[in-house]
Each structure stands twice: as structure tokens, then as C-alpha cells.
Amino acid sequence: MTETVLLNAAWVVPVRPRGTVFEQHSVVIERGRITALLPTKVAQSRFQGVREVNLGHHVLLPGLINMHTHSPMTLLRGYADDRDMQSWLREDIWPLEARFVSPEFVADGSRLAIVEMIRAGTTCFNENYFFPDAIAAAADSAGMRACIGLPIIEMSTAWAETVDDCFARGMQLAESYASHSRLQFSLAPHAPYTVGDPTLERIATYSATQQMPVHMHLLETAWEVQQSLEQYGKSPLERLDANGLLDERLLAVHMTQLESSDIETLAQHHVNIVHCPESNLKLASGICPLVELLEAGINLCIGTDGAASNNDLDLLAEARAAALLAKGISNDATQPDAFTTLEMLTINAAHALGIEDTVGSIEADKAADLVALDLNQARTLPVHDVVSAIIYSAASAQFSDVWVAGRRLMKGGSLCTLDEADVLARAVNWGRRIAAGRTVA
Amino acid sequence: MTETVLLNAAWVVPVRPRGTVFEQHSVVIERGRITALLPTKVAQSRFQGVREVNLGHHVLLPGLINMHTHSPMTLLRGYADDRDMQSWLREDIWPLEARFVSPEFVADGSRLAIVEMIRAGTTCFNENYFFPDAIAAAADSAGMRACIGLPIIEMSTAWAETVDDCFARGMQLAESYASHSRLQFSLAPHAPYTVGDPTLERIATYSATQQMPVHMHLLETAWEVQQSLEQYGKSPLERLDANGLLDERLLAVHMTQLESSDIETLAQHHVNIVHCPESNLKLASGICPLVELLEAGINLCIGTDGAASNNDLDLLAEARAAALLAKGISNDATQPDAFTTLEMLTINAAHALGIEDTVGSIEADKAADLVALDLNQARTLPVHDVVSAIIYSAASAQFSDVWVAGRRLMKGGSLCTLDEADVLARAVNWGRRIAAGRTVA
């Protein structure tokens, strides 16, 4: 990672400046950081004798950022489908989690997710699950960048018995990684219906003093809004506002139940919204009004959600679903355009996580979090418009190479930091264990 | 194709009987037809010394059937995006087609589409484009099964100057393939706004006498309905009914503008509906009410539409989009379930094309149109439910092997009947020619 490397690509889409596409350009990496973006001929004459990676059929992009997932839930992928959200959660997922979730489950599920995400061009993920220590360790050893949620839920779980335990264990974990260059932490209250007001207020205080993002499921279903009105006499957004949580550190996930007045409030408070269209559709939760949110100037990002409700971690496909769905439900084929969609996967996500100075675009002095997508395949030819090819045509299987902070995590389709065969074998084994558990139950 | 072959798979999903999944089973192929589906151990003892193909991590399925596409439009993929349907068609696509469409364009574009479709597990496609002779030749030499539309449009095109020419050239082509085992033909009137009543009536007569399907864009946009009311004083459906076209041979594509009374009419007349969710969303045309149509007992199929409006020919991803969108807009996460979605890709499509006795399921005496999907990848592990893995998790890149009528079109990810490098090189070249044309224009 200390050597200088030239990545020579057929196309580079740096995301910033907006809308630019460079042909036959090179990204220069030195000590894990991007130091220049130059025409390949210029770069080759300026940096003679350095190592070069030729990506002659590829577009080089900033690494994609998955803004909402529960990595270990890969092990529950396809366990229960075609159910509405509350039945799915209460009758299928929660009982299964109570039975199986352990540090070993979380470590194996996280590695499975990381394999899938690297293969899908993802360099950073915004996570929320139990045993965040095991997730952080998996991300660290795989070389991924991540924002690890410290789960807060007012139910006894295998990770923490009480809310006090949630804070204590979470803060201890965050401190243990305090100087880490790739891992950061968020406070992750589960949802309005599982976290009370005193806890929300406490989270607001921690978030302000520690400058930590707050990562929360919010306005996911009509049921959630109704439940809040019944229990608290307030909507979930009113509760968050009353407890001081509506600000630029909030990563509000789902947001399918929005009134026009809510959108103004969210814009005024610079709240970030994470749209998970496939999970919302699959659980029939509702549809986040992406075009209205964009028009209100809200910072929008995209997440896959966990594999149990998606059922994959394919962020490029998720972005395509987001763009197509937004056009369809707004009756306006012009919004969002392909480039705006790409921003949601990159620079908008970096902004939401507070790491816009480090990642999210290909610019000098940023970390070399880069992904190469091979466009010389039937599915993406001919290339009339490279951004259209990325957003509307490419399959995630076309990602060939991935770098995080200059370290190569995938090389020509082979993973460099994980024993993939072992990860897959463990997943198969968990499938058997869970199936045996289901039979017994 | 005359030898006996055993395909030994970890799972077989034959589609018929409904809902069945077999583990460690073998499909026996003899003379291009399926002759048995047996436990692998039984098959191996009964058929000793025959060639075996081991698909130890795979699920074997009936080949997928893409029920609406314009194959040559792969060459226009990504040429114009983020535009509404009528502007896209009139300002971008039609002028470009007038300039470039030729037998050479159609042959090269068809082969590009066929490469993409075979790689995506597609064994049969329902086509509509100019120069159907070139498409038929491409499908024939690649070994694909297809229903080739004979285009009928009341505009002068490079293929035919008048409607009379459309019929004459079309019928001549259909006759030249009359005894072909893999190719059939449909009458393909473009849309209600480009075909008048006398032509519709003539199509109905031909369809009845020749027993040919009628493949038509229908109720795609609100504009189309309005235009019909203004010009004819009737809705498009009323016009088709008046001209005798509402029957079991009609393949009605899109159908986003349906009233409840229309759904009853369509069900009574056994009209087949082809849902193209991604194209409809991307062009903001409207949304086909899949759940209501299923509940009415209508035979539903799925098409990708052309790559210019999709922008890929990935039928599995299209099916996932169809299922997720239907759940989301109906507020019912239970419909359609994964198996019902798989039926739309296989047996329902075979029924619509009138070839249900030949393809659409893995049953004795049907043609060996089969596809193998490798599930031993991060994205589809663990396999808690194999049909869920196919519909909700798998990427089309996981298709490894494809057979049509027992002939292998893809073997372990390599195409057997096409020179893929040549097909891709020609696509790149068309990209250059079209870009140069745009600059000049």
C-alpha cells in the first residue's frame, strides 16, 4: 500500500465534478490515497517505472456505499418470504434470532455479507446488528470500510440485556477502535416502537457529544405511525423532534410514510434519508417518495437492507430499482437521472456518514476506495453513455476489481482478503443448522 | 443430440407438478427430449454407460421464456434515457431507427441479444422488430427457440413500405419456416395508435385462419387511451374487441391502463398479458396491476421489452422487479409468491405461445429446454428455500449451462453456438457508427 500505482481505465467517472466522464485516464494511488487523475499518456510519462493496472474495458468509479444493512442476516436469506413486515419480524425473524444469534453466527454471516458486497462493488457499509464487535472484526480483517451501528433496543437480547448494557458495551467497542482509519460507529436505536423517549433523549446527547451518526429505522410502515400515535399521542417524527434527534447526524432509514409537511421539516433539519426500495416493496411497507425528497434538497442515499428482506446485497441493482420505481410512481421519466442515482451510491452516502472529505468521489487526497466495472460484456454493449451503462444496464457480477484505502480486496474477480471457499462452506453449514432447528421447533 | 444424457442436479424445480422441488435428481434427455426425472441414484443404475453432466451445486429449471422483446434494439441500449415514452420514441428512437435499421443492424443486434439472453438463462423469446427474417436466421443458427413477430405498422419502414407489404413479406417468411421445430411466428401489430381498424380486422382473420398469436403493445400509456378516444371514440380495448382480436391468441403487452371492467373482459376472453415492469417504470408509462390480474385468473407472463428501454434482457431480474412491485403497490406482501412468479417465466409463457405441450416445465416428452443455475455463491447461500433463492436472490450471471431441445447452448459459462468475441466486437463497432451519426446529425 505504500507503493505508487497507476490504474489505467477506459473510462473514469469521478462523481465530482458533477457529470464528468473521462476516457483513457489514470488514477494515481500513493500510500493508499488518490493523488491525481490524469490522461493515461500523461500519467505514464510522469510516473515511469511504477506498477500499472490496466483496465482497458472498464469504468473506474468511487467505491459504492451501502447505507443500510444487517450483514449477519445473510444467514437468514430466504428463510421466510412473501409475508408482511410485522408478521415476518415477530413470527419468523425474531424467534429465529433468539435461537441462533451468537458471536459465531454474526462473524460467519458478516463475512458472507462482505464477500457478497465486495463482489458487488461495495467498499463501505452502514451496519446495524447485534454483536457489533464481531462485525467490526470481520470488516477490519477483510479490509472494508464500515460504519458499525451500536444496537439499542428495549428488549433483552443475546448482545445486551438492558439499554444501559447497550450503551456500555457499545461505547466500550467504539473506544477500542477510536483511532481506526476505516471503522467508525453510529448509535443505532432499532425503531420508534422498540425505543422509549428517555432512551431517545440519551441517544441525542451521546450523538451530540461524541459527534456520532444515529442510524435508525423510521417511518417504515403505516403500523409504526399508528402505534406511535396510540402509545405516545405523537408521530414518530414528532417524538424524534421532541427528543432532539432531527439533525444532520440522523440517518433515517426507510421513510415510506411521509406527509408533505414532514418533508419540509426533514429538509430544514438536514436529516439524511436512506431509501431501501426492494425491502420496502417486498414487505409491502410503503414507498419512499424519492423525487419529492430530491426536490426538497434532502440528502438521499440507498441501502439494500438485510438479505433476509431483500434478498441480496446488490447495491447497483438496488439503485436501479430506486431510479425506476421513482420514475414510475412520480409519473416523471426524467427523475432521477442516471448521474443523480450514482451520487446516491457514493458522494451522498459519504456526506451522510460525515466522511465526505475521505471518500465518495475520485479526487486528490481522498482515500483510494475504487471499483472497476467491466463494460465489455453483452449486457453493457454498446456503451452509448457510460453512466447509463453503470446505472441501467450493468450487473454487479461485472465488478472485477475493488480497492479500499489503496488495498486491493478483489483482483480480476478473485477475493484477496477473505478465504471465500471457507466463507461459503460455513454458510452452507449454517443453512443445515437452521433447517434442523426449524424441524425440531 | 441423439445420445442419451443424464443431467444430475442438486435440485430440480420442474414447475409441474406445482410447487415440487426434487433434491439429488436427474433429468434424462434422449433425442432432444426429456424422457424421465428420477432420483440420481436410480437414474445412474438404470442408464449405465451414458454421458452424465454433474450439476452438484445447481438447480435445474425449465428454460426461461422472455415474452416481449425487440432484440436488435440492444444496439440502442443507453442511447437515450430519462425521457418519457412518447418523446423517447418520436425524438430519439424512431429517427435513429430510420437512419440505421438494416438487415445487418438487425442481424448483429439480434446476436448480441441472444448472447445476453442465453447468459441470462433464456431459452425462448417472443420477438417483434423489423427484418424478422434476419432475427429468425440469428435465432435458428444460435439454436434458440423463438416466436418471431411479423411487424405490422402503418408507416413506411425499411422492412415494408405498406401494410400490404407487411403481410406479404411476413407470410412468405412464416411459410419458409413452416416445418421448423424451434421457430414459430406471430402477427405483430405495433400499437393501437399506429394500426387502423381495417388492418386490425385483417389481422384477426389471419390469426384465426393461421392459428397465429397476435403480439401487440396495448394500453401502455394514458396518452394511448386518450388518443384512441379522440380518434376513434373508443378505447383501444373496445377497438380490439370490435375487430375480433380479444381471444386466447392475443399476447397483450404492457397493459398499465386497466379499469376493473377491462379485467373482467380480458379474463372472459382468455387474453394473455405480458408484464414488462422495468420498461413501464423507466418510461413512466404506468403500472400493470399484476395482483388483480392474477386474482382474475388471467394468464400472466413477463417480458424485458427491448434493451433501449430496460436497459438489459435480464429476465430473472425482471421477474424479481415484477414480484416486488406487485407486493408494494397492492400493499400485500403475500402476492405473488416466489413460485407463482416462476410460473410466469415458464409454463404461463409456454401456454400463451400455444406450446405448452412442448416446453415450460420439466416433464416427460417435452423438449429438453433446460437451464442450470449455480447456487453455491455468496449471493444465494444458505439455500433455505430453493425457489426463493431463484426468484429473490440469484443473479442471472449464476446461470452456467443452457440447453434447447437437448442441444447445449452454454457449457459452464461458455457459449457453444455463437462466437461471442465477434458478437461483442460488432456491438462496439455499431456503438461507434451510431455515435458518429449523432455527431453529424
From TrEMBL, chains A, B:
SUPFAM superfamilies: Composite domain of metallo-dependent hydrolases, Metallo-dependent hydrolases. GO terms for molecular function: deaminase activity; hydrolase activity, acting on carbon-nitrogen (but not peptide) bonds, in cyclic amidines; metal ion binding. Residues 59-408 form the Amidohydrolase-related domain. The keyword Membrane does not apply. Keywords: Hydrolase, Metal-binding, Zinc. It holds the Pfam family Amidohydro_1. CDD domains: ATZ_TRZ_like (cd01298). It comes from the Bacteria. Transmembrane segments: none annotated. Gene3D superfamilies: Metal-dependent hydrolases, Urease, subunit C, domain 1. Belongs to the metallo-dependent hydrolases superfamily. ATZ/TRZ family. This is TRZ/ATZ family hydrolase. It comes from Elongatibacter sediminis.
